[in-house]
Amino acid sequence: MKIYEKAPAKINLMLDVLHKRSDGYHEVEMIMTMVDLADRIEMSEIKRDTIMISSQAGYIPLDEKNLAFQAAKLVKERYDVKKGVYIHLDKKIPVAAGLAGGSSDAAATLRGLNKLWGLGISDEELRLLGAELGSDVPFCITGGTALATGRGEQLHQLPNPPQCWVVLAKPPINVSTAEVYGRVRSDQIQKHPSAKRMEDAIRNQSFAGVCKELGNVLEDVTVKLHPEVGQLKEAMLKLGADGVLMSGSGPTVFGLVSKESKVPRIYNGLRGFCKEVYAVRLLT
Ligand SMILES: C[C@@](CO)(OP(=O)(O)O)[C@H](O)COP(=O)(O)OP(=O)(O)OC[C@H]1O[C@@H](n2ccc(N)nc2=O)[C@H](O)[C@@H]1O
Ligand SMILES: Nc1ncnc2c1ncn2[C@@H]1O[C@H](COP(=O)(O)OP(=O)(O)O)[C@@H](O)[C@H]1O
Prior knowledge:
Layout: E1 2-20, E2 26-46, E3 51-55, H1 67-78, E4 84-90, H2 101-116, H3 123-133, H4 137-142, E5 145-149, E6 154-158, E7 165-170, H5 177-183, H6 195-203, H7 207-213, E8 215-216, H8 218-225, H9 227-238, E9 243-246, E10 253-257, H10 263-271, E11 276-281
Parallel strand pairs: 1-8, 3-4
Antiparallel strand pairs: 1-2, 2-4, 2-5, 5-6, 7-10, 7-11, 9-10
Family: Belongs to the GHMP kinase family. IspE subfamily.
Domain GHMP kinase N-terminal: 66-144
GO molecular function, one term: 4-(cytidine 5'-diphospho)-2-C-methyl-D-erythritol kinase activity
């Protein structure tokens, strides 16, 4: 038997850091939603009791470090599954980009193996398993749009924002999520974005409101380390995006655009100085 799962990328419409916790993680408030840029995961049964993994992408680990591998190992151990699986990752989401590609692959693997092995694990249990793999994995299990609190694993589902185009641009730099969080001084944050106002804008289906309330306190940290992220934001705004923000810990910058006719200009303008540019829709 073979199972296919789609693993979409996420963007953070707002991200606030409240304080550092005693376990080393940061208490956050984030509103996240999915975009139509996805990896495709194929899972098939194999005779040997082992986990095999492959990908067309040469630039991700294909061993125990791969989050899909870790997800399969966790399910096998926790549910005492004595069966093998071959996992193929067709990667489309840029890696280490702030788009949760690895987390979404892990979530899709958990969902897929639940079906492949007929385990009957509830969504809530899948989210708890996901939290053992990474803070963003529980959100990637359910998808949609959600307010995430705690270290990102506590979820309150929201309606989807009004449909629009999303132009994503990933500059060719590497950002470490742990380093970015490590550099945040939560007592020195000048302007906190508001989860409440973003939630209201979404509930009112106000595209202008969503653009106005975009905010990410990790942006200042990453821009200080990599000024090109700030330049990319400026370029996207100049080219006509309605609202612009860095996603997660970066370095991907996304622009929300309501009019389809504006998209080619923004896309082509960015392609001038950034190789990895995507124009997609929100996954609503
Ligand atoms: C910043 C965000 C925003 O959505 O996304 P990305 O930029 O990674 O996509 C997330 O909070 C990232 O979630 P995720 O990538 O799953 O992080 P984890 O693997 O759990 O943690 C990686 C490291 O980031 C730090 N970390 C993560 C989450 C959190 N709430 N506080 C933290 O301090 C910790 O140092 C941890 O060791
Ligand atoms: N299935 C996977 N896809 C992408 N990256 C993976 C995967 N498994 C492990 N990784 C590793 O996880 C790290 C973060 O990748 P990713 O999830 O794409 O970033 P982000 O959390 O910034 O969106 C990278 O260093 C990458 O090598």
